[in-house]
Amino acid sequence: MTVYESDLPGVGKKHEVELGDESRLVIVTHNTGKREVFRRESADSDSEKLFELDDKLARKVGTLLEGAYFQPVHSEDIQTLLGDDTLIEWVEIEAGSEVAGQTLAESDLRQVTGASVIAIERGDEVITSPGGDATVEVGDRLVVIGPREACRNFVDLVEGS
């Protein structure tokens, strides 16, 4: 994706975003804060105005597009990177997992892997900061935090890899 930026003297700024099919999305940000959004079939074609937003509404729409309120899941492995090497991962407990039916203390997951369980998702319920007496059940999703290698060890142990 290529983004082209240009000044519009007396008006504001223009950004053109290549959309992959030779068309472009053109966003004009006026000095007043108003945004106008256009679409161009190609770099050489005329623009068709799609809509206009005031500054406040444009910022709200922008946060939605950025994913500030919701981030869709694209794969079965969910992973969030914190800093250089710390991850938050979601690990599903399947039938046959050696930790299913054990408490967190019995499973000794933190000591063995170096990753910590910070929450258990069980259906619609979320158990935050579960203690050692929390039992791990088939179908649970464990929310785990730790260094990348520790999280990898955790997944391997829980999935039996």
TrEMBL record:
GO BP annotations of the record are: potassium ion transport
Tell me the Pfam families matching this sequence.
KhtT_N, TrkA_C
One GO molecular function term of this record is: monoatomic cation transmembrane transporter activity
- The residues covered by the RCK C-terminal domain are 76-160
**Which SUPFAM superfamilies would you find in this protein's record?**
TrkA C-terminal domain-like
The domain of life for this entry's organism is Archaea
Return the InterPro entries for the record.
AAE_transporter, KhtT, KhtT-like_N, RCK_C, RCK_C_sf
Q: Which protein are we looking at?
A: Potassium/proton antiporter regulatory subunit, CPA2 family
Where does this protein come from, organism-wise? Answer: Haloferax larsenii
